[in-house]
Amino acid sequence: MNFLIQPTFNRNFKQIIAKQKPKILFQKLSNLTSEKIKIIFKLPDGSKKTVEGKTKETVLDVAKRSDIPLEGACEGNLACSTCHCYLKNEHFDLFKEPSDREYDLLDLAFAVKQTSRLACQLVLQKKHDGIEIEIPKTQRNMAVDGYISKH
Ligand code: FES
């Protein structure tokens, strides 16, 4: 039985690895040229947590590393809205405009505001040093057991 499954599994695994290699290589190269910046997360209970981020990574990456409650179920592949967050008005234009796909996914999020964004689409630059990201009080989560994915 295993013998029959193996070729298909290997082919699928090779396809997955082939897709991941450029992404992993890009992340390693980015680490060599990234700069440290500070990000302030406003948590659902109103408290604030200042954490260290790096340029060229996303707000979701920083949140995951810093135990900020953002699920990010699709791990940044624009297939969910579990990384919904709010920007401050004055910070909204500091990021690239949302894509049509991001707007579509934001329609699925709870309590959307004018400054809503998906954290996985917010790529940090030096100009974002000190920005505040608010985590909504209600989030759309995919995990039923409270699991928060880490990548
Ligand atoms: S993690 Fe799924 S859209 Fe951001």
Automatic annotation (TrEMBL):
<dbReference type="GO" id="GO:0009055">
    <property type="term" value="F:electron transfer activity"/>
</dbReference>
<keyword id="KW-0001">2Fe-2S</keyword>
<protein>
    <submittedName>
        <fullName>Ferredoxin/adrenodoxin</fullName>
    </submittedName>
</protein>
<dbReference type="InterPro" id="IPR001055">
    <property type="entry name" value="Adrenodoxin-like"/>
</dbReference>
<dbReference type="InterPro" id="IPR036010">
    <property type="entry name" value="2Fe-2S_ferredoxin-like_sf"/>
</dbReference>
<dbReference type="GO" id="GO:0005739">
    <property type="term" value="C:mitochondrion"/>
</dbReference>
<keyword id="KW-0411">Iron-sulfur</keyword>
<comment type="similarity">
    <text>Belongs to the adrenodoxin/putidaredoxin family.</text>
</comment>
<dbReference type="InterPro" id="IPR001041">
    <property type="entry name" value="2Fe-2S_ferredoxin-type"/>
</dbReference>
<dbReference type="GO" id="GO:0051537">
    <property type="term" value="F:2 iron, 2 sulfur cluster binding"/>
</dbReference>
<dbReference type="GO" id="GO:0140647">
    <property type="term" value="P:P450-containing electron transport chain"/>
</dbReference>
<dbReference type="GO" id="GO:0046872">
    <property type="term" value="F:metal ion binding"/>
</dbReference>
<dbReference type="InterPro" id="IPR012675">
    <property type="entry name" value="Beta-grasp_dom_sf"/>
</dbReference>
<keyword id="KW-0479">Metal-binding</keyword>
<dbReference type="Pfam" id="PF00111">
    <property type="entry name" value="Fer2"/>
</dbReference>
<feature type="domain" description="2Fe-2S ferredoxin-type">
    <location>
        <begin position="37"/>
        <end position="139"/>
    </location>
</feature>
<keyword id="KW-0408">Iron</keyword>
